[in-house]
Amino acid sequence: MENLSTLVFPNISADTLLQENSLLRALIESMRDPAIFVTDPDQGYRFILVNEAVCRHFGVSRETVLTWTPADIDPHYDPHKLLQLENYLAIHKTHTFESEHVLPGGRHVPVEIIVNYFEHNGKSLIVGYFRDISERRQEERRRRAEHVLQQRFKIEQQHKQVFDNLTDDFYLLDITPERRLLIVDVNKVSAQRLGLPAEQIIGRYLDTFLPPEKVASCYSQKLICTDTGQPYHYEENVLLNGTLCTFDTTIIPIFNDQGEVYRIAGISRDITEKKRQEMEKLLREQEFRALVEHSRDVVIRYDTECRRTYANPAYLKIAHASQMEDVLNKTPLDDSVIKHNDQALYDKIKNVVDSGTAQELDIIWTDDGIEYCYEAHLIPEFDNQQHVCSVLCIGRDYSQRRHAELALQKREQEFRTLVENSPDTICRHELNGRRIYINPKIIKMSGGLSRVIINSSPLEYPGGEEGLMYHNKIKEVICSGENLEFELNWMSIKGPACSLINLVPERGPDGRINSVLAIGRDITLLKRFRQDLEYSRSQLRELVAHRERTREGERKHIAREVHDELGQQLTALSMEIQSMSVRYGKSDEAFTQQLGRIRKQLQHTISFTRNLVSRLRPGALDMGFIAALEWLVEDFKQRNRSCECRLTLNCADVSLPEDIATAVFRIVQESLTNIIRHANASQVHILLHELDSHLLLGIRDNGCGFDSKRQHSESFGLMGIKERAIMIRGELYLFSAPNKGTYIELHIPLGNTRRGIDEDSLVDCR
Q1: Residue 240's beta-bridge partner residues?
Q2: Domain PAC: where (predicted)?
Q3: Cβ neighbours of residue 44 under 8 Å, at least 6 residues apart?
Q4: Whole-number Å distance between alpha carbons of 334 and 173
Q5: In what order do the strands lie in the sheet with 370-382?
Q6: CB-CB contact of 9 with 17 (8 Å)
Q7: pLDDT of residue 177
């Protein structure tokens, strides 16, 4: 204590120092816990002050402790680490940590230490205290062990709940030192099967439930896993209530902390029904054999090596075999029953084995001048692991059908006669595109060019881009196997012609495409009429665009005239009324009331005039396109307060030419008007997004929607929207369905933002 006084209070008088020193000593030494200490970094971190609790902790005198440093009692700290701790305390001032002390007797004691950095008059000290936390550590270990036991009990309860709901028998058996099996748990299924409550089963030996002659075999099977340490699986037959049942049993070893098997878990599944089904399958197999023995179809079973394992009498008759052994264990390559088809059949069988999918094969051969035609169906058969174990081949004689097909070919010739007189052009192409047939219609339309057309490909005639397109269309039909229709421009004797060509794939008996039939219909006049119609539409749209521009100009002019002239007159009237009110209003109350009614009517007229000007030409358009959209949104909210309307802008301020900005403004205005009139929506969202090549304007509502695929002859609003989109060379998309709302999306090319509408280039953008 004297050491601390001289360090901390060097300038205090001796009496005061002794008094305070005595008080401090009494205060510190009277504390039984915690143990308080002070170390001096300048003296190698030696303890310069400790209380009685420190001495009692180490079991030595204070003089002995004052010769120590923390490194003498804490194996985790050396002078280097003490220096690191001092540097840490110089910054953070305090530190709490756990460590351990080595007592003079060698015993290690865990402690919790709190140290503080103290500095006075340029002198640095480390003041701290520690507590023995051995009892706390023991309590923590006890709680952890208790928590582990609780978790283990919880898991066992969960497992028990699972096992109680299993449809299989489950039981736990303890292995006694005498290698007897003691039942420690069973699930509900096991208890029901034994006909006793679980409480009367648990605690009894397994052999008490077994016939004496079954005890030895049952124990030997169940104890196999104790020797191997691995689960053991087997099937066993058990007589229950006079019925022989078959169980599929798995025995699982359970190990203790020493790695010894002290308990086994058994799961038994009743597979009596499964065994019965296997027997039924065997009976069905026998019935199958009895059926195919008398079938007129050829039935052969091959193994995975393509060897015959069964053949019915129908095949023996074709193979001229007297008994089944003459054809068994042979592949189709080992005999020549089906002549040159043996390799194809062999390959098909291998394909079925490899792929696991059924295949078909036509087999035709001649024997003694008789033609045999069989349609072979190769069907894979699977084992329990879903692996192909054999292939069943069923061959059906279709010789009569083949004769019918030959007759059909004859009728094909008759059909050719019909084609010769068709008003449409008909030609047949080989797979390489070469024409192998043209009907008289082509010859008549092409004149002398018919000699060039026959035996030529589209690349040769008509050649050029049209010929290349024609040739590619033929390839596309061959690849897809589907019909294809396109227009072809070519030269007839009367001049340029246009035909609508329909390409039809033609298949052979094997189902493969062997040619392509081209049927063409002359649509030259039809296409000419269509071009005239498109030109007429283009002119009509130009007229509509001109009308819209004229109308917008008139609206703008009328709005300006109404705003300037009528607005000034109304304002003048308002001022006159105000002057009359000031001059004569106090003299006559009736006159004042009359002026009030006139003023109110005038205000209604001014408000109506402002609305009329806004409808004809909103002033927001003069402030910019985005400002105009914002004005529309606010106007919509005022007109329909029950509907939420949002505007999302994902672009900077966009500068559009006046005619384009006005057209887009009218599209949005008409869309919002339609929503108010028809949609009955509660939410409307308007999006303006700038992309690389165009501006995207989207308008979405959650209203009642409509069928957008139907034609709405009276929907002039939608018609006007579409026409305005075409006028600005934009692309308009409309998506709607009943009860699904409506979404309108307009793509405005960015080129349109730099120039106005060019009447000469105005076309149908759709």
Answers
A1: 243
A2: 230-283, 357-410
A3: 69, 79
A4: 60
A5: 308-311, 298-302, 388-397, 370-382, 359-367
A6: yes
A7: 86
How do residues 426-462 score in pLDDT, each as one tens digit?
888 999 999 988 888 888 877 777 788 888 888 888 8
DSSP structure class, residue 642: T
Six-digit token string for 247: 């169980």
Q: Which of 480, 477, 425 is nearest to 454 (CA)?
A: 425
Nearest to 6 by CA among 36, 34, 31, 43: 43
pLDDT of residue 222: 82
First vs last C-alpha separation in the chain: 101
Give the single-character DSSP code of 386.
Answer: S
Spatial separation of the C-alpha atoms in residues 689 and 27, rounded to whole Å:
78
**Report for 132-136, 345-349, 485-489: range of highest mean pLDDT:** 345-349
d(Cα 131, Cα 98) in Å, to the nearest integer? 10
HEC sequence for 72-119: HHCCCCCHHHHHHHHHHHHHHCEEEEEEEEECCCCCEEEEEEEEEEEE
Model pLDDT for residues 291-340, shown as the tens digit of each residue: 778 888 889 999 999 999 888 888 888 888 888 888 889 998 887 778 78
How far apart are alpha carbons 538 and 44 in whole angstroms?
102
More confident residue, 97 or 244: 97
CA angle 619, 623, 628 (to 5 degrees): 70
Q: What is the pTM of this model?
A: 0.33
Q: How far apart are CA 663 and CA 390, in angstroms?
A: 74
Q: Phi-psi bin for 463: left (phi > 0), alpha (psi -120 to 50), beta?
A: left
Token couple for 93: 């001032």
For residues 187-207, b (16+ Cβ closer than 10 Å) or e, as one string? bebbbebbeeebeebeeebbe
For residue 686, give the H/E element and its range: strand 683-690
Query: pLDDT tens digits for 731-761?
Result: 889 888 888 899 999 998 876 444 444 433 3
Distance CA 371, CA 401 (A): 12
Share of the chain above pLDDT 90, in %: 12
Q: Note the pLDDT of residue 545.
A: 64
**Alpha-carbon torsion (159, 160, 163, 165), positive or negative:** negative
Q: Hey, is 661 helix, strand or coil?
A: helix
Q: Residue 66 phi/psi, 5° resolution?
A: -70, -5
> What pairs with residue 237 in β-bridges?
246
The torsion angles phi and psi of 126, rounded to 5 degrees, stand at: -115, 115
603-614 pLDDT, tens digit each:
787 777 767 766
Tell me: the pLDDT tens digits for 573-602? 778 777 777 777 666 777 777 777 887 887
Residue type, 372: Y
Predicted pLDDT at 475? 92
Contacts by 5-14, CB closer than 8 A, 24 or more apart? 7/40, 7/48, 7/123, 7/125, 8/120, 8/121, 8/123, 8/125, 10/121
137-138-139 Cα angle (round to 5): 90
264 to each of 222, 223, 615, 633, 704, how far by Cα in Å?
8, 8, 90, 77, 67
Q: Where are the beta strands (DSSP E) in 163-260?
A: 169-175, 181-186, 232-240, 243-255
Q: Assess whether the previous peptide bond of 618 is cis (omega < 30° from 0).
A: no
Cis amide leading into 177 (omega within 30): no
Give the lowest-confidence range in 4-13, 86-95, 130-139. Answer: 4-13
Tokens of 41: 């970094």
Q: What is the pLDDT of residue 240?
A: 72
Is the separation of the CB atoms in 300 and 308 below 8 Å? yes
Find, among 492, 493, 518, 496, the residue nearest to 505 by Cα: 518
Best CA proximity match to 319, nearest among 247, 389, 395: 395
Residue 579's Cβ-side half-sphere holds a number of Cα atoms within 13 Å equal to 6
